[in-house]
Amino acid sequence: YSIQYIGWSAFDKIEFENLQDSVLTGSYDKPYEWQDGWHYSIGGTYYLNNDWTLRAGYMYDTSAQDKVTSISVPDSDRQWFSAGFTYHIDTKSNVDFGFTYLMG
User: Fold this and answer.
1) CB within 8 A of 92, min separation 6: which ones?
2) pLDDT by residue, tens only, the chain of 104 residues
3) Backbone φ, ψ for residue 72 (5° rounding)
């Protein structure tokens, strides 16, 4: 399990500066008005036998964006449902599979 505080508001405004000569503007600011968020997750592993290991997990993220949106960060609260397994072929080889379903 984990709980994390994410300080998105530190990126409330991003400043860009063009260091090369260009006909384009030398610099500009991009306001985001991001809000701080939280990340909660929990997961588990079950050792079925010597050959199979099963895993599952759940994660919830709160959105960093309120009014101004960007494709750079999640734009809504999100839920993640994950599952996977490992098949132990021998002492040196494994096959792993994982799947995540994202809502939000």
Assistant:
1) none
2) 999 999 988 877 778 777 776 666 667 777 777 889 999 999 999 999 999 999 999 999 988 877 667 676 667 889 999 999 999 999 999 999 999 999 98
3) -75, -30
Q: How many domains does the chain have?
A: 1
CA distance 87 to 52: 5
Burial of residue 61 (CB within 10 Å: 0-12, 13-18, 19+) is buried
Overall size of the chain counted in residues: 104
Compute how many other C-beta atoms are within 10 angstroms of the C-beta atom of residue 50: 7
Structure tokens at 75: 């734009």
Containing 57, the helix (H) or strand (E) segment is strand 52-61
DSSP summary character for residue 9: G
Strand partners, 44: 56
Give residue 28's domain range.
2-103
Whether residue 75 contacts residue 69, with contact meaning beta carbons closer than 8 Å, is answered with yes
**DSSP code of residue 71:** T
